[in-house]
Amino acid sequence: MASTFQLEVVTPDRKFFEDEVSMVTVRTTEGDVGILKEHMPMVAPLDIGVIKIKQKGKTVMATCAGGFVSVDEDKTTIITDAAEWPEEIDIARAEAAAKRAEERINHGDAKEIDVVRAQIALNKALNRLRVAKDDD
Ligand code: ATP
Question: Structure pTM?
Fold first, then answer.
């Protein structure tokens, strides 16, 4: 019998994913973590990055704009501010967001807090572009 467990990914707008999977890889703030059935229970903060979901031998990718992962005995839950499948990503929007963020970062008299926010926005936009272009 295949070793699968339940994965649920939720965002403020929708239940992004809910199904049995054989593995999920997430980017925590401490690095990438691969979760298989019977992984030790844990809760970890997520960085901006990619969620890789393995199901029936196939792996699919989605963006993750940070959040939390919670691993229980037979269920893993990811709660994130935003998640998108590659085909959902609006490339022009992500390019515009990256450009806007770069301009803020390079603006000499920007406040530190604005620069930090712009760096997060840039990271999210570049992550979306990488996933949309499938070169993570
Ligand atoms: P923008 O500056 O373009 O609004 P953002 O990084 O501020 O982007 P988020 O706050 O991360 O956007 O997400 C808000 C909503 O918009 C989420 O539902 C997210 O999935 C969606 N979203 C953001 N950027 C894109 C994109 N390039 N393509 C598709 N959906 C996107």
Answer: 0.94
CATH of the domain at 119: 1.20.5.440
Atom of ligand 1 minimally distant from the CA of 12: 18
Which residue has a Cα nearest atom 31 of ligand 1?
Answer: 89
**Does pLDDT of 53 surpass 80?**
yes
Structure tokens at 131: 């996933």
Find out whether the beta carbon of 97 lies less than 6 Å from any atom of ligand 1. yes
> What residue type is assigned to position 129 of the chain?
L
String of DSSP letters for 40-54? PPEEEEEEEEEEEEE
Residue 9, phi then psi, degrees to nearest 5:
-125, 120
Helix (H) or strand (E) holding 93: helix 91-106
CATH number, position 60:
2.60.15.10
Task: Find the radius of gyration of the CA atoms of the chain.
Answer: 16
